[in-house]
Amino acid sequence: MISKTLLETAGNRLVTVDRSARLIAAAQAFDHAQTRLIVVLGAGGAVVGVVSRTDIVSRISRCTGCSCTEAVETAMTADVKTCAPSESVEEVWTRMKQTGFMHMPVIDFARRPLGVLAARDILEALLDEREHEESVLMDYVMGIGYR
Fold first, then answer.
1. Is the pTM of this model over 0.85?
2. CB count in 10 Å sphere of residue 32
3. Strands (DSSP E) along the chain, which ranges?
4. Which CATH architecture has domain 4-142?
5. Which of 17, 94, 98, 12 lies closest to 52 in space, CA to CA?
6. What value does the mean pLDDT of the chain take?
């Protein structure tokens, strides 16, 4: 299960735009230093896609005339890999490795976004788990707390 701390971190990183928002609005949302991925919302606030800086730059670099007023949905990735709070950190990490995505939206049962997890968050959580297991094992071997 994804820890409360990880969910809070992911929630702080969440930036959303409506699918009909203009590319310029999405580009401005990247002004926040932590933003690496913007979650695109459809009807009812459900996740319908994601858009990265690369997606925005690629699309805007081809602008001619009024094409920069295109909706975000023209540049978004619709095949979104997501995770749920009930999944283990190991499951999320496995999916990130398989897909090659460094960021993954966390969604609820109605596909509404709760946050965006970064691979760094997951790796830190896995490292903390391993260090704790090592400490408990070392205490056991040394007989600390078992007398």
1. no
2. 11
3. 16-18, 37-41, 47-52, 103-107, 113-118
4. Roll (3.10)
5. 17
6. 85
